[in-house]
Amino acid sequence: MRPPVMPWKTADRSAGRDPVADCAEIYRELFTLDFPWDLNQALSLALFRTYAVPSIGRLLDETGQFTTACQKRYDDTALLLEAPAVHGFDSPEGRAGVRRVNQMHAMYDISNDDMRYVLATFVVVPKRWLDDHGWRPMTDGEVTASVHYYRTLGRHMAIRDLPGTYEEFADLMDSYEAEHFAPDPGARRVADATLELLVSFYPAPAAGAVRAFSRALMDQPLIDAFGYAAPSPALRRASTAALRVRAGVVALLPPRRTARLGVDTPRIRSYRGPITRTDLEGMGTFAPGCPVGPGLARERAGAASSA
Fold this sequence. Notes:
- The chain is mostly helical.
- It is about 65% helix and about 0% strand.
- The protein has a domain at about 20-200.
- The longest helix has 22 residues, at about 110-135.
């Protein structure tokens, strides 16, 4: 049962705005004002899910970055994806963030299908998280705005054949996972390293409980793909109940009026203070002797600059 929401929090910030034309502004408010904690959890879970696709998880393992420098990769990923959401796609920071993501992807042979699947998780997992665990679900207008925000991001990343609706994104994600989720030793190493990073965000005595709580939030196909022990039904119920309690508390609070950014949270440990365009340009991994990468790097970086 969803907790009651206080009257002062029922106003829809996006009411009266065009969810397509104003998608970036609407998504920014969702990301920084209405659901900063929830969307951080959901997007982290979305990325975590992608590791269960062997072509993605194995590649991340082969780079060594997620097993040897997991905190830095977490920070860089979060801040690079946050830049266009907070500053806009046409801002210096937004353009720098997308450009660096494109440059890194272009260093590797990543299929359009995998790129499109990852984008689908960014659309679908947050909505499902808020449906299940948020202090309120997203409105229809907010869902539409999220879809068009990520369609815009996808175009800036030169991803082809993008779905046009939430339902199409959800069908893509679910069918891709049904077809591609499979055990892989490299993917499991990346998942384990990421889970241990999550554990490190909490006091050491809570490590076992955090691991168990995290696995309890994973669905069975994800558990099976990573080869984790299945959580007990009682643990799943307890984890869901804990998130419902949190949602009930948040529903009682006044609406947030100051944007909550990733760099403001204790989980980001590699950077302090405002993140500049120069900071963004130095994030992520660089190919030896070729910071931009050949061919496709120039194509995708050009798409980011001109889209």
